[in-house]
């Protein structure tokens, strides 16, 4: 009985193999579906199979430029490590890291070299007179990032699909956020968690348009939104070459509004994150570290970068 089964199996085996090989050749010869021009008319001959969806080539994805101001403090490397671990998982992301310093620091230079993602390392110091509590932070650094971006694209031929986003070094970013902002046409907005003295702030959306702001802090702001709550297309940045963050007359919490009103209107904003109903970024703040037991003079036998 066993030998009968075995001989049947041997008899069938070559045929099964032939069928597999023929199927394989057939599928590798199948013509690739023609790429229809974007926005071009589809279909035509009735009954024809629609072209199989092709994966969008990576090169066509708009680049996300993330401008991150950063300054030296005990938690700096920890913050940058967390941020790089997020950014490394985002395709076509270019990190513009701007140090608040008179020169590039060794720590950040080394960090950038090993970060494992495209990175531009800039630096500009905040003038001493602006380093005071109650004054806006990182104005000069964000402007340096904007200047670099504009200069870089001056000499590149259009179109240059890109999206700019201000990514402070201490916030928490979900990967979904980058999918959302990638499709920004002009200026897009979304909710931000743990900000403004509330669990979240968000643009209020009606019929796909921003009509107001859910916020617990200074609701009179023209754009009641945190720095982490919007993205701008590169085209808008390039077509408004004078749009920058201003020191003169600026008040805390007004930087976002002052910047946005130079480039857009509330009516024009594109709501993301399911009509601004999902929190995909959190305005987390790292607590100041306790270094009470740190010796005044170097006591260890080795030097460690922390
Ligand atoms: C809030 C907003 O979320 C910030 O976008 C805004 O810049 C800031 O207020 C402000 O007051 O201007 P907050 O958490 O209070 O943020 O500010 P930080 O996270 O301390 O600073 C924002 C960014 O500027 C960070 O990336 C930080 O590394 C950088 N920074 C801060 C400097 O480059 N230099 C500084 O002296 C302080
Ligand atoms: Mn912060």
Give the key terms:
306 residues; Spore Coat Polysaccharide Biosynthesis Protein SpsA, Chain A; 7-stranded mixed sheet; 3-stranded antiparallel sheet; 8 helices; 30% helix; globular; binds uridine-5'-diphosphate-glucuronic acid; binds manganese (II) ion
Notes on the structure:
- The structure is a single chain.
- By secondary structure, the chain is α/β, with parallel strands linked by helices.
- The chain has a single domain (about 60-280), classed as Spore Coat Polysaccharide Biosynthesis Protein SpsA, Chain A (Alpha-Beta Complex).
- The protein is about 30% helix and about 20% strand.
- The chain is built from 8 helices and 12 strands.
- It has helices at about 1-30, 75-85, 105-115, 140-155, 175-180, 235-240, 255-265, 275, and strands at about 65-70, 95-100, 120-125, 160-165, 170-175, 185-190, 190-195, 200-205, 210-215, 230-235, 270, 280.
- Strands 3-2-1-4-10-6-11 form a 7-stranded mixed sheet, with helices on both faces. A 3-stranded antiparallel sheet has the order 7-8-9, with no helix packed on it. Strands 5-12 form a two-stranded antiparallel ribbon.
- Strand 8 (about 200-205) and strand 9 form a beta hairpin.
- The longest helix has 28 residues, at about 1-30.
- The protein starts with a helix and ends in a 24-residue tail after the last strand.
- Mean pLDDT is about 85; it is low at about 25-50.
- Bound molecules: uridine-5'-diphosphate-glucuronic acid and manganese (II) ion.
- Uridine-5'-diphosphate-glucuronic acid binds near residues 69, 126, 137 and 255.
